[in-house]
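Thread: Modeling a multi-component assembly for a lab meeting

Hi all, long-time lurker, first post. My supervisor asked me to bring a structural picture of a complex we are working on to next week's group meeting, and I have zero experience with this. I have the sequence lines for every component (710 residues in total). Could someone generate the structure of the whole assembly? Inputs are pasted exactly as I received them:
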Amino acid sequence: MKIYNFSAGPSILPQSTIENTAEAVKNFNGIGLSILEISHRSKDFQAVIDEAVALFKELLDIPEGYSVLFLGGGASMQFCMVPYNLLEKKAAYLNTGTWASKALKEAKLFGEIVEVASSKEALFNYIPKDYTVPADADYFHITTNNTIYGTEIRKDIDSPVPLVADMSSDIFSRPLDVSKYGLIYGGAQKNLAPAGVTFVIVKEELLGKVTRPIPTMLDYRTHIKEGSMFNTPPVLPIYSAMETLRWLKGLGGLAAMEKINLEKAALLYDAIDSSKIFTGTAKEEDRSIMNVCFVMKDEYKELEPEFQKFATERGMSGIKGHRSIGGFRASIYNAMPKSGVQALVDCMKEFERNH
Amino acid sequence: MKIYNFSAGPSILPQSTIENTAEAVKNFNGIGLSILEISHRSKDFQAVIDEAVALFKELLDIPEGYSVLFLGGGASMQFCMVPYNLLEKKAAYLNTGTWASKALKEAKLFGEIVEVASSKEALFNYIPKDYTVPADADYFHITTNNTIYGTEIRKDIDSPVPLVADMSSDIFSRPLDVSKYGLIYGGAQKNLAPAGVTFVIVKEELLGKVTRPIPTMLDYRTHIKEGSMFNTPPVLPIYSAMETLRWLKGLGGLAAMEKINLEKAALLYDAIDSSKIFTGTAKEEDRSIMNVCFVMKDEYKELEPEFQKFATERGMSGIKGHRSIGGFRASIYNAMPKSGVQALVDCMKEFERNH
Ligand SMILES: Cc1ncc(COP(=O)(O)O)c(C=O)c1O
Ligand SMILES: Cc1ncc(COP(=O)(O)O)c(C=O)c1O
Ligand SMILES: [Mg+2]
Ligand SMILES: [Mg+2]
Ligand SMILES: [Mg+2]
Ligand SMILES: [Mg+2]
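Re: Modeling a multi-component assembly
Sure thing. I ran the full set together rather than chain by chain. Output:
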């Protein structure tokens, strides 16, 4: 049976990324060594990280003055690295979910934090739009895609102060205007790579302004200076990221990718909206095209475990909703083919016919 | 041609680790998904991390009261995490090389540092033994194997204060008396796994004593509480680590491993000591059994580039010495078979006969 991976992250990757990584584990570049055992200082690996950085810049059309970094520690490490490097006195945070809340909590160790708005009272089912960012904040932090709640900020907003964005779960899902951001980061384990590498896109001129001493490994300038090779980087995850970026480019880049993502999302949301038993949890205008959250309507609520079992038996893997909202979550990242979304929709319709 | 990987790290791994990781990238546990794309919260991965922790405890005979963690960021991140968590006022450091110096430098951000001894004046070619650790230090930090200089502390020393050891390049090379240590850490990319995962063995009772606030991700207690799953851990590197630990156990554990390592090291050091053109750089009594550093004697010095080429052409990969001491370095980690060391020795002898 074909398994469709709807996991929220680590999550589905392009078939070419998986196949070429498997080959590189056996014999990297035909040099007779595994990607698992090659020196990060070898010219073969230097070529990999150089290509990954170049493809980041090309696909996202990153302007001059920004650096692309590959670090360890996960997006969660960025929750403290961002304020360590950028927060002198005050920062503004938009609270749109669990991850946004965690980022905000961490920043409180470093200075005054203004929560400009929060949708917590509505279980984060929408993106607040009516707020003011203090003009004297060192930066404004947003979470563009709220993985757990299925809401997304899908346009590049204007901010009066440097904009910092956690794009863990929607980077590369659409073209970006990077010039509107001061720093973009994310765990790469959704749209890009296996778990173990974190990407950072940072506008260099923002750095070096805080007065606190910064431990070497937590200072972005260390990694900029050494091209992400101050110490041993996560070699294999970076290799796989490069493979995914090649796949994205081959597909036609981010405009082409966005078109496919919009089609996939429409297919699934249409099925939800026209269903007698399922209903979406996120406010329509803020729906994510990456994580689609839905539950059973009240009168069918007790069927949820049955659908979970039904869908799992038909190869739908990872569709259980996050414990904080329950129901179902289908993560339809870049690598999920339209046929996978169709298979899920068919499964929902079949279940519905039976009830 | 068979390639022998003498790289200092990332470095050679057991063939079974490489083959089984390649298989898991294609189809993990036969579940129809790749290890690259499975959720770290899946029961299949939970079993992997549980087994890796259990094998750590079994092979190193770790006593009660210690936790084993798998983190991101590399050993270099531990250079700041250790003082963040353990240094209230004063700590003692033994300076035996580049890595020890970097650890010491980082700790200075957090309190008073006493360098109890240093072999810097002799280009770190020996381990100082005549020093006193202040009884009021919060901990004493050592680097058991100095990867760059080929010196090693091969017995568990006694310390009047909690002993912290960077064992990046000799963990699992011999049995340890873990009870003599407060904390052991290392990048796993030498004897254990591909790059991207860092191990920490920590005595829990040492934690929670410093007064500074600690960012969540930098606090060992976060990771102890969540079993290294506070956030997404480096899934594939942990899988490979588990495979290497299985291999080690199958070999008979650390006593068996040490015996093999001693034989391999003796083979290579004997060749160096009986050579008319090569000479070792580390003081005999402090020689590492993991990284064997040697140069050409003064009268043959100009032959170094020729030997480099000669050996490379015969499949010896990664034997160039670190730029800070030059010459050659053969890293003969656990996974390097005796036949590999023999191949290098043969190569040295053949070169010698030709000159
Ligand atoms: C939006 C967002 N931010 C941060 C994180 C945390 O990432 P990591 O596990 O790499 O620390 C996640 C993980 O799912 C996420 O979805
Ligand atoms: C003894 C020792 N400590 C620390 C490090 C740094 O490790 P990482 O690159 O994982 O930060 C190394 C790397 O070679 C090492 O050999
Ligand atoms: Mg969220
Ligand atoms: Mg290294
Ligand atoms: Mg060293
Ligand atoms: Mg995650």
